[in-house]
Design goal:
Elements: E1 5-11, E2 24-30, E3 38-48, H1 52-56, E4 78-84, E5 96-99, E6 106-110, E7 115-116, H2 131-141, E8 149-153, H3 160-169, E9 174-179, H4 182-191, E10 196-199, H5 205-212, E11 217-222, H6 226-235, E12 236-244, H7 248-251, H8 267-272, E13 276-279, H9 289-299, E14 306-310, H10 315-323, E15 330-334
Helix pairs in contact: 2-3, 5-6
Length: 335
């Protein structure tokens, strides 16, 4: 292959506070050369996700991703088109695959680290949404039942914008979410399956939740923690099931590193109400999320809320805008 150049986003400095575009650089480098057993992929889309703030802050022990240091290339979920692949890999030029080396125009990785797309979803970019997380949290972890009341904190984000719609399709009787602005709250009710949306800054979340769910909640899909987790405990019905998916209250706090999310809760209430609280169980091949998501997308029963940003040069600004809460749903860059 003739020598060509490709662009990659690298961290240039660890910020004091939240990352900003000036902490990154888009660098031109030679297209990587695959070795034995490796695939060369040209990325078509990659995901911008808030957990990068945690990795830049040093990471969290026991989680699967390493911390990012100055000079490192950023990474994340991506969909790419195979350029070259080993003959015995089952891949050929032109195949679309999902992998974890986003934030660059070209990537090289072992063939085993590529997952071919099977056409389950009508839009390849939808593979970069959080449908699997939302579906597994509701069905496997929370065991949502017909007629129950669901509260989704962070209801306009990548997980929440799908969890509200999925809860509705799965038979929830009432679906409540929270978000950071009135505009997003209005969209959640109009477009994303929510019966009510709470807004940070428009009064205590506990009071807003009590008004929206006077008979209490049965299920929590928690993407935030903090005050919103405390409010959910206060509103929980006996036997409620809580699934902790994210920690945005700590992850995006400007006065923290993004690696901790402390919250004080009343454990007497957990005991008295027999609340079941568990961390998200991870993606599981046995959970048929793609089949259901694809069917719902094709029928128009759900949408895939997302913002598409064109050009890798705009990726650092896209991360800044995501952290600032300027988008509804997933944020995807087309290099």
């Amino acid at each position: 292959m003739p020598s060509r150049m490709s662009r990659v986003v690298r961290l240039t400095a660890v910020p004091d506070g939240l990352p900003r575009p000036e902490h990154f650089a888009v660098v031109r480098e030679p297209v990587p050369v695959p070795g034995d057993g490796e695939v060369l992929v040209r990325n078509r889309f990659f995901q911008v996700f808030p957990s990068l703030r945690t990795l830049i802050g040093g990471g969290v022990k026991g989680t699967p991703f390493p911390p990012l240091r100055p000079g490192d290339a950023l990474f994340g979920a991506a969909v790419g088109e195979v350029v070259t692949a080993p003959h015995d890999s089952g891949l050929v030029a032109g195949d679309l695959v999902r992998h974890w080396l986003g934030w660059r125009e070209h990537a090289v990785m072992p063939a085993a680290e590529c997952t071919p797309l099977d056409g389950a979803l009508p839009d390849p970019a939808a593979h970069l949404g959080q449908a699997g997380v939302a579906y597994a949290a509701l069905t496997r972890d929370a065991r949502l039942r017909q007629g129950e009341t669901v509260f989704v904190s962070g209801g306009s984000g990548g997980v929440g914008s799908l969890a509200g719609q999925f809860a509705r399709r799965l038979g929830a009787g009432r679906v409540i979410g929270s978000t950071g602005s009135r505009d997003k709250a209005d969209r959640m009710v109009a477009e994303l399956g929510y019966d009510a949306a709470l807004v940070r800054g428009e009064g205590p979340i506990s009071a807003q939740l009590a008004d929206a769910a006077p008979e209490g909640i049965d299920v929590l899909v928690d993407n935030v923690g903090g005050e919103q987790l405390r409010a959910a405990i206060a509103a929980a019905r006996p036997g409620a099931r809580f699934v902790l998916v994210g920690t945005l209250s700590g992850q995006l706090a400007p006065d923290r590193t993004g690696t901790t999310a402390p919250v004080e809760i009343d454990t007497f209430q957990l005991i008295a109400k027999r609340i079941e609280m568990r961390g998200f169980g991870g993606l599981d091949a046995a959970v048929p999320w793609a089949e259901h998501f694809g069917d719902w997308l094709r029928s128009g029963d759900v949408t895939f809320p997302h913002a598409r940003v064109t050009g890798i040069d705009h990726a650092p600004q896209a991360l800044h805008d995501l952290i600032a809460g300027r988008h509804v749903g997933a944020v995807i860059v087309e290099p």
